[in-house]
Amino acid sequence: MVGCGAVGSLFAAGLAQLEDVEVWAYDLDEAHVAAINAGGLRISGAGDLVGQVRATTRADELPPCDFGIVAVKSMHTDRAMADTAPALRDGAVCSVQNGAGNEELIAGHVRDVIRGTTFPAGHLVEPGHVGWDTRGDTHIGPFEPSPAPMAKVEALADACTRGGMPTHALEDARGAQWRKLIFNAASNAIGALTGLTHGRIAEPPTRDLAWAVMAEGRAVADAQGITLDMSPEELFDFAARKEVAYDHKPSMLQDVEAGRQTEIDFLNGAIVDFGERHGVDAPLNRALTALVKGLERSRA
Amino acid sequence: MSLNRVVVVGGGVIGSLYAAHLARVADTWVLTRRAEHADALAAGGLRVSGKSDFTATLRATADESALPDAELVILATKANEVDEAAVRLAGRVPSATVMTIQNGLGAEEIVRAHGERPLVSAVTFMSGVRHADDHVEYELDTETWLGPFAATTTYERAREIEALLVESGLRARAFPDLRPAQWSKLIFNATVNTVAALTDLPHVSAFAHVEAPTDLGRLVRDLMDEGKAVAAAAGVALHEDPWEMNVHAVRRGETEAAAGAYAHVPSMLDDVRSRRATEVDFITGALVREAERTGVPAPLNTAMYRLVRARETAYR
Questions:
Q1: In B123-266, alpha helices (H)
Q2: Which one-letter DSSP state was computed for residue A197?
Q3: Is A249 labeled as catalytic in the residue annotation?
Q4: Class of the CATH domain delimited by A174-299
Q5: Cβ of residue A297 closer than 8 Å to a chain B Cβ
Q6: How far apart are the C-alpha atoms of A97 and A69, rounded to whole Å?
Q7: Which member of A193, A269, A294 has the closest CB to residue B307?
């Protein structure tokens, strides 16, 4: 596990339940690593379990691994892969991160790459203990320019599913990834700039803007020949329900409020980049990217 | 007609700067909202520091019925307070030409709706900091541009006001038609104010960075290009290029920042930081409405308008 934050911990603890899997976690949070090694990795909330995981802050302590799962924030992907590549070079490495563009970075360090998108979410309660907020499915598939063999994709999906994280192995996982990316690009950037929760973003005066931002994302997906597996607009309205996530502060808003760097380059910025590569202009996503980068600059 | 008496409505930064300077050359009254504000001005005068340094003696009241007749009214409220000010002035100060100095477009029509008067449109680039009811710091001593509104008054009238402002120590310039200047400032403001309000950045050099596609200066330039297309469709030839205004202001900011003297916070950013209603309806909103009227697409300005409105609803 490359990055053992909230999402990484859900996978690590789940996989550690399996007799045929040995889980190592690489994370730079020393207190978290020490707590995991002392008492195991504890998950509570949507599921309760403790996983026996070997954690380390030093990549050179990792043994050669069959699989890598990358769950660091996107802006740390390149650095984390450079550190862990010696242990992962002969394995297949799967991203379960937000946005688009991580697989390209991973492929700069290892050959067999797996594209992935995950919905479960959680938060760090204390070192060694993660709260599981929402369950959800994960979709993985070979990363086309530098693909892992389908047999490895299926083996990883099987292990994750047996470990309690339902995972689907697909020949083409781009539809799931871009559906989530398009949804996130609208909700996160607008939330970060306005301070609104997800449900209020789905109302005027931002509703039309959110839909226009998603339409640009769709055009960029279309230009790449990607068929979305679900409608991001329907997902947006579903999440805006009172009983689902009306009052949820998008994670980018939480990042901005905490003075942290955001994943804007891998969300709206990725829509702009992929659009440029395929001849599709995405002016609203470009504007939101520039504004969020400006906001990061003022908070720095 | 000579200009012997002036009423300034509103004792914010801009109103205070006009009133204090004009008090040196004319009988000057300030109409405030709060009685204690008027009392402080009447008792100890109005101090100006910064680019000018003096204390002006003037008359002040919060009671509009106490105002005498005058030759000039300067309406120096926020754009969203013009209607309230026009109501207070209705039927009063009957001989006055009213000069509006609000950001954006539309203040003149609001005043006109409360009775026909000679109207002078103005835009000002002055800025300052309000330290107290009776103390304002004069930060940027830039010009006020003014001109007759529609056919309600004459260019000569605007020239007389220009002369009075210059005599008082302010910088001013009259135009036969203000719209080219008003629109230059509208486009500049619609962009710089909304970008600042959403990013929490003062008007810094990043506003002119255009190297990468997602650099902030690219957005600034794209927003201004939309505004220029709307101006062209509305038949207005701009007085100054808003992008050049932006680059120039940022450069000046950098030079003065190096001397530790400058960090310009656009008014909309100040409003957002203080969780007040912004003037976005009169600035970007006016531009978007003109875009719709003329059939020119303005998707980026529309997005900025919606984002700032949404940001207001999040804290109000």
A1: 155-167, 179-199, 216-233, 242-258
A2: -
A3: no
A4: mainly alpha
A5: yes
A6: 9
A7: A193
Neighbours of B50 (CB within 10 A): 15
Which residues make Cβ contacts (< 8 Å) with residue A185, sequence separation at least 6?
A213, A214, A217, A267, A268, A271, A285, A288
Q: What is the pLDDT along chain B (316 residues), one digit of tens a residue?
A: 579 999 999 999 999 999 999 999 999 999 999 999 999 999 999 999 999 999 999 999 999 999 999 999 999 999 999 999 999 999 999 999 999 999 899 999 999 999 999 999 999 989 899 999 999 999 989 899 999 999 999 999 999 999 999 999 999 999 999 999 999 999 999 999 999 999 999 999 999 999 999 999 999 999 999 999 999 999 999 999 999 999 998 887 777 655 544 568 899 999 999 999 999 999 999 999 999 999 999 999 999 999 999 999 998 8
Q: What are the φ and ψ backbone dihedral angles of A133, each rounded to 5 degrees?
A: -85, -50
Residue B314 with chain A: CB contacts under 8 Å: 194-196, 200
Look up the ipTM and state it. 0.90
pLDDT in tens, B14-30: 999 999 999 999 999 99
pLDDT at position A299 is 87
Residue A86 in tokens: 């010696």
Are B222 and A190 in contact (CB < 8 Å)? no
Cβ separation B306–A209 shorter than 8 A: yes
Q: Indicate the SS3 state at residue B72.
A: strand
Give the single-character DSSP code of A223.
H
Contact A116, A140 (CB under 8 A): yes
Cβ <8 Å between B314 and A299:
no
Delimit the domains of chain A by residue range: 6-169, 174-299
Please report where in the chains the tokens 């109409």 appear, as a residue: B31
- Residue range A198-211, pLDDT digits in tens: 999 999 999 999 99
Residue pair A191/A198 in contact (Cβ under 8 Å)? The answer is: yes
Chain B within 8 Å of A287 (Cβ-Cβ)?
A: yes
Domains detected in chain B? 5-174 (3.40.50.720), 179-315 (1.10.1040.10)
Tell me whether residues B198 and A208 touch, CB distance under 8 A.
no
Which one of 3.40.50.720, 3.30.70.920, 3.40.1440.10, 3.40.50.970 gives the CATH number of domain A6-169? Answer: 3.40.50.720
DSSP one-letter code for B69: P
Give me the residues of A, 178-207, that contact B with CB < 8 A.
190, 193-196, 200-201, 205-206
Partners of residue B305 in chain A, C-beta under 8 Å: 205
Q: Which residues of B210-219 are buried (b: 16+ CB within 10 A; e: fewer)?
A: eeebbbbbbb
